[in-house]
Amino acid sequence: MNEIQILVVDYGSQYTLIIGRTLRELGVRSIILPPKKVDLWLKNNIPKAIILSGSNWSVHDDGAPELPKSLDVTDLPKDGVNKKYLILGICYGMQLLARKFGGNVDKPHEHREYGPAKVTLNTKHPLFKGIPEKTEVWASHGDTVTKLPKNFISIASSSGIAAMSNKTNNVLGIQFHPEVVHTKEGKKILQNFLTLSGCSIDWNPKNLIQQIQKEVLDIVDKPKQKQKVILGVSGGVDSTTLAAILAPVLGKKLICIAIDTGGLRKNEIEELKKNTKSAGIKNLVVIKAGEKFIKNIFITIDGEEKRSKFREVYKSIFETQIAKYKAGFIVQGTLATDIIESGKAGESVMIKTHHNVGLTWKVEDLHPLRNLFKYEVRELARALNLPKTIYERNPFPGPGLYLRVVGAPVTKENIELVREADKTVSDILKKYNLSKNISQLIVALLGVNSVGVKGDERVYGHSLAVRAVVTVDFMTARGYYFKEEIINEITNALTKHKNIVRVFFDLTPKPPATTEFE
């Protein structure tokens, strides 16, 4: 396979791996490295372009990460031409470049942007070729470039300077995030950058399937390593697709373990068995452990503590199975999204703990899908000819309904109430053929009781929240707006339960919210 064409320097943005995802979507391979690892890599590699990511840092913070020392900016001619590779700074990356070349970066209140923003582009510039002059982008910044460096020009504006370029177009900066789907022309902008960089197409899903198989085989199929391989499956698209990829090459060595945590949705175990059979899984072990999970979580109402207690039981069960089958490896369908939010991707900060990320095992822990996003795994499932029930399935968190009892103890009664409410809402959406329009549905019990009236009598009961989101990569999302008749039907159906008094509909985008409540 060809050499890596794009180096992405990861400054800790929640969107960094989305840059890599979008580049792959455009057919170009990239490598993502934190600043401290860039210098060594550049000693042995010359990419066609370097992208500097956004960050949770401000350039004014003490200890804020700087440009890599070996980045070819100090040896640039006076006009700013870079002879080795093009450089594109995104958000924080643009601010670093501006400061490096002598511009100013300030914190003007009127120039701060979070979420959707309107920009006006200089469409004569090759970075914005073929793009409307005015378009909507996704921004998330408090710092802003207020004075351009010498020999740089502004090529886009919003409430301030939204993009800049040196006079020879070899050093570029964008204040907004072209990598996220909410920047309408973002992919086209990045395609223009690839064209400017002279990149060629070198990636496709079928190649990736073969790469995953080879990567795992190279580790587990050595002469001295004939142990079994444990794979945790949930019936969802990630673990099921991974099982379908590995089953043909691992054969009887692959043992798939599914856990009935007591927090699954209605009829989920039956669906899991059907999906794993479609994936060609021969060795499936289902373990019932609802009592263990509820006992360990029970009175905990803090989201992070709840995830931690779920992890304890999850790990214990898998350790038992590893010992039982004398396995030498555990494989999990962890995605880039999980790793990012767990703070395990490069320099990104922790948003929330994921039950299968960062655990310490006595055997080797493999995450073959660690650089992929949900939509990419769906493409792999299609390439494997898996049924629609798998690749179109909405995601469901590992801790399941335990995360949907919010601000109240996780009792069997509360879990069952949420389980029935989830089925009620799901059935209504299926009736109106709306499921295909929604990326994820969350029905949660809120720990907020309130007064209501039923049958002319006072009741004091539960509140439920219904949250439906639309997204491609689950790094950003927008709320799904139901029609009034759907809202009324859902509300009426849920409040028929004697203990449910109110129903709220949550339309908050991500960010600032996350997809799940916990």
From TrEMBL:
It holds the Pfam family NAD_synthase. Pathway: Purine metabolism; GMP biosynthesis; GMP from XMP (L-Gln route): step 1/1. PANTHER family: GMP SYNTHASE [GLUTAMINE-HYDROLYZING], GMP SYNTHASE-RELATED. Residues 203-393 form the GMPS ATP-PPase domain. The lineage of its organism: Bacteria, Candidatus Nomuraibacteriota. The keyword Glycoprotein does not apply. Catalyzes the synthesis of GMP from XMP. One of its GO terms (cellular component) is cytosol. Keywords: ATP-binding, Glutamine amidotransferase, GMP biosynthesis, Ligase, Nucleotide-binding, Purine biosynthesis. This is GMP synthase (glutamine-hydrolyzing). The keyword Cell membrane does not apply. Its EC number is 6.3.5.2. ATP binds at residues 234-240.
